[in-house]
Amino acid sequence: MRVGTVASLSGPVPGLFTGAVQGEEAFANYVNHSGGLCGRTMAVDAADDGTNCSQDENATDDLANKDFALVGTFALYDGCGATILKQHPTVSDIHVALDPAAAPLPNHFDVQSGVRGYATGMFAYFAHKYGSKVQHVGTIVENIPSAVANQQNMEHAAESVGWRFTYSRNASPVETTFMNDFVKMCHQGVQIFFELTETAQNAATMMQNERAAGCHGLINIIPIAYDQAFIPDYQGSPADLNGIVGWNEYSLFFNPDEAQRIPELKTLQTWFNRTYPHQPLNLYAMYAWADGMLFRQAYQSVHGQVTRASLMAALRRIKNFNAGGVISPANPASKSVGKHCYILWRLENGTFSRMDDPASGYRCDGRFLPYHG
Length: 373
Prior knowledge:
Elements: E1 2-7, H1 18-33, E2 43-48, H2 53-66, E3 69-71, H3 78-85, E4 93-94, E5 108-109, E6 117-119, H4 121-130, E7 137-142, H5 145-159, E8 165-171, H6 179-188, E9 192-194, H7 200-212, E10 219-221, H8 230-233, E11 245-248, H9 256-261, H10 263-275, H11 283-301, H12 308-317, E12 343-348, E13 351-354, E14 368-370
Parallel strand pairs: 1-2, 1-3, 3-4, 4-5, 7-8, 7-9, 9-10
Antiparallel strand pairs: 6-14, 11-12, 12-13
Helix pairs in contact: 1-10, 1-11, 2-3, 11-12
């Protein structure tokens, strides 16, 4: 049983989503070790979209023509691939959509959210915690369509509970310094720096720039910092990063202590390390694993011969999916309802730890707020 994965592996940021391929391959190794998919071996066809629209279209078309389903894709130009998947309506596509154009397709299934918008709970939490400071927020947005759209979703949710973004700049994906941004933020009275659309590597650079610019009083809310590369990429003492806070719509997936409470997370960590020893288990690998779990659950629920049509019907019957607790609950087929459960974390002394959360579950306060802009 062959599945296809399209990932942005080359281009302005070489190796950007290599983790997605690694995560899907680790999942396939686990499945095959456990007896396969109803006895059938699972294999992964990986294609590089070169962080390019036309190349994404070509890669998607090639895989859709030769593989049973697309599983675990992570590509900045997946909206371009969506134009191809419209021409392959019988091919199930299971991946976290980055471009809003990828989500509405009836053959797309998403463990994150299948509709534009964002949850409000985490923004309300920090509004209560930091008071009027959330009315003076600065941010830097990666200037690609999918990242800009995601930022719009988040800002709409944040502003609904009192946040105000007083400094925002769209930055080229190839920028390597953000010093001027922090000089301007300090001058303009920004009190909170928020970052989610950039890479963890860039977030580490931003923390160096923030410190060099003398912005020592800023509160840093940086969800993207939950990444094994973030602390090593920071050129300074890990103690400088103490107090950074953020949230995930998934577990603390590379934490050993978290794996003791979530058995499926222990399986993920074990098999990723077996498949790619000494490689960081990142967000893209985790989502690819969760995509694989959704594919397997649907595949194994089919009675009789599994066809493309019966697989898609099975995927549409799954209304509440959390990958064994690895991610917060999702309705993968929904085109109208998004996720609103999350966890909070804090970084201290090089360790990410839950903050004001259930031990292994998720906070589900607030609501999902659709974005119609």
